[in-house]
């Protein structure tokens, strides 16, 4: 039989077949059950979650998105989800708390056991967006001067509460990170062998570093876990590969949304409210509307030029489209290179040099075509204006589009904020200025 779907459960709830709902959800793996619940609207999701057996509900709750978890807490009440909240990993718990009203968050924190409250406080002590906020403070460490047998005993004793045990941080007795050891090496070694013999140089991150870039580094190097330390290199926690993948996926969704001039929806589209969808889009539309006024002002300034040579107006959509697309292509390419650490703000001069040459090359190719077509239809002088403008606009747009993400990174702003529509509008205004200045020079008007 095919697996149950959100639509099946919605129908069953409408028919009052709650036993069927609980049975079908319990038969699914927690990740699959969470995916089904995420696709349901809040009311039916709450009912479906209520009929889950307690042990299943705890595991399913942990797999829900933070937005779905927050919605459940609001509809169920904190007391009903306190057990599931207590059993979440501290980093996931911190992410959920960011979604909740302060009074609800405080109530849930009070429901934690002292040990879990302390672990969550460690994560919450770091700014949002830092890897310290996404690390897990639940790990097992070993010492370089102890035997493999002693290390294995500690792993067995504490491993159930740890986020992962496959990569083991090695610390000195002042808790400073000295390396990492593989569980495989420790298990296969003689029990009296010192851990130091299997300790490798660590790839680690400082807790204050950006979560996205750290997570990408963890993935690129195929690390099962990356130690996270403070400025004195004392071990604070670990970032696991699955958590790193979640961070990168969330950042990718955010970048794609902002490139389309909107924010990420925290609930599935069909279940998102009209107000939520409007909020996700309207702010960027205001920004773009204000920036588009620049284009109107430019046209107003050169109104007299257009009156003398009406044919110039026919090419405005072509030139603004080429400029906006060229700038957006450059910005997208450099933003991706920043995310994968192929470039840094220190490479601004090299990026500018490369984009000038790329823009000049593309502009020359397009400019020749534009010159030929415009000359054939409107004469040599108009063709010269169009060809020269295309070369200039492509070069300028590629350079500006390539440098804007680097500027954003320098001032600690998300490069995705300089989204495709924003750069397009900027290039429209400056491209028109270039266009009319060239036209006045060539045509003598």
TrEMBL record:
Entry keyword annotation includes Cell membrane: yes
Organism: Gordonia phthalatica
Every CBS domain range: 135-197, 198-254
Protein name, UniProt field: Magnesium transporter MgtE
Pfam family, one: MgtE_N
TM region(s), chain numbering: 282-302, 358-378, 384-404, 416-438
UniProt-listed SMART domains: CBS, MgtE_N
Membrane topology: Multi-pass membrane protein
Family: Belongs to the SLC41A transporter family.
GO terms under cellular component: plasma membrane
Alphabetized SUPFAM superfamilies for the sequence: CBS-domain pair, MgtE membrane domain-like, MgtE N-terminal domain-like
GO molecular function: magnesium ion transmembrane transporter activity; metal ion binding
InterPro entries: CBS_dom, CBS_dom_sf, Mg_transptr_MgtE_intracell_dom, MgtE_N_sf, MgtE_transporter, SLC41_membr_dom, SLC41_membr_dom_sf
Function: Acts as a magnesium transporter.
PROSITE patterns, alphabetized: CBS
Key words, A-Z: CBS domain, Cell membrane, Magnesium, Membrane, Metal-binding, Transmembrane, Transmembrane helix, Transport
Chief location: membrane
């Amino acid at each position: 039989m095919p697996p149950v779907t959100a639509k099946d459960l919605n129908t069953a709830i409408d028919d009052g077949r709650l036993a069927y709902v609980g049975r079908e959800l319990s038969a699914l793996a927690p990740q699959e059950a969470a995916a089904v619940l995420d696709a349901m609207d809040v009311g039916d999701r709450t009912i479906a979650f209520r009929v889950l057996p307690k042990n299943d509900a705890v595991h399913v709750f942990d797999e829900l998105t933070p937005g779905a978890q927050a919605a459940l807490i609001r509809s169920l009440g904190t007391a009903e989800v306190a057990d599931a909240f207590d059993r979440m990993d501290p980093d996931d718990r911190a992410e959920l708390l960011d979604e909740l009203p302060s009074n609800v968050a405080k109530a849930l924190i009070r429901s934690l056991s002292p040990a879990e409250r302390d672990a969550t406080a460690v994560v919450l002590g770091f700014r949002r967006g830092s890897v310290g906020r996404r690390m897990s403070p639940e790990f097992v460490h070993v010492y370089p001067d102890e035997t493999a047998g002693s290390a294995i005993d500690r792993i067995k004793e504490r491993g159930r509460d740890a986020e992962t045990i496959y990569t083991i941080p090695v610390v000195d007795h002042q808790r400073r990170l000295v390396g990492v050891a593989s569980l495989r090496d420790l298990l296969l070694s003689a029990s009296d062998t010192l851990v130091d013999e299997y300790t490798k140089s660590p790839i680690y991150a400082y807790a204050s570093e950006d979560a996205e870039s750290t997570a990408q580094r963890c993935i690129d190097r195929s690390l099962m876990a990356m130690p996270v330390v403070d400025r004195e290199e004392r071990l604070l926690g670990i970032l696991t590969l699955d958590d790193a993948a979640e961070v990168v996926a969330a950042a990718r969704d955010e970048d794609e949304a902002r490139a389309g001039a909107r924010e990420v929806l925290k609930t599935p589209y069909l279940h998102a409210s009209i107000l939520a969808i409007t909020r996700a889009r309207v702010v960027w539309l205001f920004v773009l509307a204000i920036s588009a006024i620049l284009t109107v002002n430019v046209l107003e300034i050169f109104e007299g030029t257009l009156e003398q040579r009406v044919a110039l107006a026919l090419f405005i959509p072509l030139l603004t489209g080429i400029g906006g697309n060229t700038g957006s292509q450059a910005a997208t390419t450099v933003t991706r290179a920043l995310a994968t650490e192929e470039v840094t703000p220190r490479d601004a001069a090299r990026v500018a040099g490369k984009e000038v040459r790329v823009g000049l090359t593309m502009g020359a190719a397009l400019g020749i075509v534009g010159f030929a077509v415009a000359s054939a239809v409107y004469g040599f002088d108009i063709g010269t204006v169009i060809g020269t403008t295309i070369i200039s606009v492509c070069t300028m747009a590629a350079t500006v589009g390539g440098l804007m993400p680097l500027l954003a990174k320098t001032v600690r702003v998300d490069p995705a904020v300089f989204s495709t529509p924003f750069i397009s509008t900027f290039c429209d205004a400056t491209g028109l200025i270039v266009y009319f200045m060239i036209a006045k020079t060539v045509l003598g008007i």
